[in-house]
């Protein structure tokens, strides 16, 4: 029995379901047909943003949840396998964007301006991948898939905090 039949196929389907954000990453390609930049990352980030109100509000439980989910996302991303697209950091994998948007919004006020700024900056840095972030993306494992998004998100979070502090002095 090969890995992609029977129990192996079920295991692959399980990891692909989780990695694709319960198949939300399939929507852009189904609609846009054959586009290189599918928008799956954008949808994964939006999915994460919509799930944010259901996460722990208190700082300590949220921190534990965030660390545990990041480890889970690394584990899932390293085991997902899609027949089409890149082998590493396949566009169908959006669990990294979900973790990333949660890092971008971590410990910020859950207000529209703060969350919108975190979202826009996270998407920008995740797309452009400046500084050391590109090096993290080059790691060929689940860690590389997720940690570049976490780094982009932390950078976005810091800039939102700086912006909020500057706004307080105006």
Summarize the structure.
With 170 residues, the chain is an all-alpha fold.
What does this structure look like?
The protein is mainly α and 170 residues long. The chain has one domain (7-169). Helices cover 66% and strands 0% of the residues. It contains 8 helices and no strands. It has helices at 7-19, 26-32, 40-51, 59-79, 95-104, 112-128, 133-137, 142-169. The longest helix is centred in the C-terminal third of the chain and has 28 residues, at 142-169.
Write the topology of this structure:
Blueprint: H1 7-19, H2 26-32, H3 40-51, H4 59-79, H5 95-104, H6 112-128, H7 133-137, H8 142-169
Helix pairs in contact: 1-4, 3-5, 4-5, 4-8, 5-8, 6-8
List keywords for this structure.
single chain, 170 residues, mainly alpha
Total separate domains: 1
The proportion of residues forming helix, as a percent range, comes to: 55-70%
Question: Mean pLDDT score, rounded?
Answer: 87
The low-pLDDT segments are none
Main sheet properties: none
Helix tally?
8
Q: Distance N terminus to C terminus? A: 67 Å
Strand content: under 5%
């Amino acid at each position: 029995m090969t890995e992609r039949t029977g129990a192996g196929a079920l295991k692959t389907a399980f990891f692909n379901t989780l990695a694709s954000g319960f198949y939300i990453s399939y929507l852009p390609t189904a609609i846009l047909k054959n586009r290189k930049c599918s928008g799956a990352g954008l949808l994964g980030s939006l999915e994460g943003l919509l799930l944010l109100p259901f996460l722990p509000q208190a700082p300590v439980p949220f921190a534990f949840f965030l660390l545990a989910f990041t480890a889970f996302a690394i584990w899932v991303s390293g085991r997902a396998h899609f027949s089409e697209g890149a082998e590493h950091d396949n566009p169908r994998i959006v669990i990294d964007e979900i973790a990333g948007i949660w890092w971008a919004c971590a410990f910020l006020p859950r207000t529209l301006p703060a969350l919108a700024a975190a979202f826009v900056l996270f998407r920008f840095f995740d797309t452009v991948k400046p500084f050391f972030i590109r090096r993290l993306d080059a790691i060929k494992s689940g860690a590389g898939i997720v940690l570049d998004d976490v780094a982009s998100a932390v950078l976005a979070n810091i800039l939102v905090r700086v912006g909020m502090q500057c706004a307080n002095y105006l």
